[in-house]
Amino acid sequence: MQIRELSIAEEPAYDAWVRCHAHGTLWQSLEWKHLQEALSRKVRIFAAIEGESIHASALVVIDRTAFGLSTWDIPRGPLWEDSLSNNLKRDLLEAIIVEAKKDKCLSLSLSPVQELEAPSIQFASSGRHIQPEATLLIDLKLPEEALLAQMHHKGRYNIRLAEKHGVSVRRSEDIDAFYALLRQTSQRDRFQNLPKKHYESFLRGLQGGFLLLAFSPTSKKPISGLMGVMWGKTGIYYYGASDYEHRALMAPYLLQWEAMRLCREQGCASYDLLGLAPPDADASHPWKGISSFKEKFGGMLVTYPPEQQIVLRPLMKKLLETKRQILG
After folding, report:
1. pLDDT tens digits, residue range 89-103?
2. Which of 33, 39, 189, 203 has the fewest CB atoms found within 10 Å of its own CB?
3. Beta strands 270-272 and 234-242: pairing type?
4. Any idea which architecture 2-129+305-327 has in CATH?
5. Is CATH 3.20.20.140 the classification given to domain 134-303?
6. Could you read off the pLDDT of 110-161 as tens digits, one per residue?
7. Angle between helices 251-265 and 153-164 (to 10 degrees)
8. How many other CB atoms are there within 10 angstroms of residue 138's CB atom?
């Protein structure tokens, strides 16, 4: 079996492999590759191939940092056939590590869907929570009445309350309006939002991306927004923002409901609420605050292995982290 980087000509075969894989996701897809490239990141795809068949793969997103160094990230990967031996999984990762070292890579992060066993490779906890350790998947194959019935009663109540208040939801391309809401939300909840270009690329450059805005009957400006994406048979909630002044109207609940309905109409079989704190997490977990909101929509709890990393330049990585802590 040959392990190597795939060429552009081989991308259609890779696309088919990811879409047919039981654990294939947006984050290992060509759509994600194109989004990352639009954001000026380099993406490389490695695979274990025999003949024309792919047996394992890893899409790697490469970020440049100071001093010509880089970090490599395999989001929701690698992917492999169930019958693949642990030794071949190791060989795939070792081939990637060789290339990463050539690129002055500080560390290689992995957030696999399945537990990854690769003999002789030393993993460490990454400490990051970019890819969540748990999520809720809502079954969109259910009739609407059943979808509502499986929710927490408070979720149903708040959706109806928003409707009673006359909140309306529209699909939109208005990134400026969404970004204005996002800036309010980040200041209020003390998190750092990304540059506007990121959200523009997500909506306009990522196939399946969508934006919903909620309006009150008395305001021309939106009071809440939701950005998501449809990939394969899954709709995914990605970003949310709201105006605190209109919090009593419960617009974020109606937005989630309308996003589910939209994804269902477009043929999605499930809706991923994308991240909550795992059941055993303490109050300091970064996903804890949003978890209670998401749990009101019901769904099946799905957990993932915690993100791991392979540190390739430990001293340089430590020095760079210290610099960032001091200088910001």
Report:
1. 999 999 999 999 999
2. 189
3. parallel
4. 3-Layer(aba) Sandwich (3.40)
5. no
6. 999 988 888 788 888 887 878 889 999 999 999 999 999 999 999 999 999 9
7. 100
8. 24
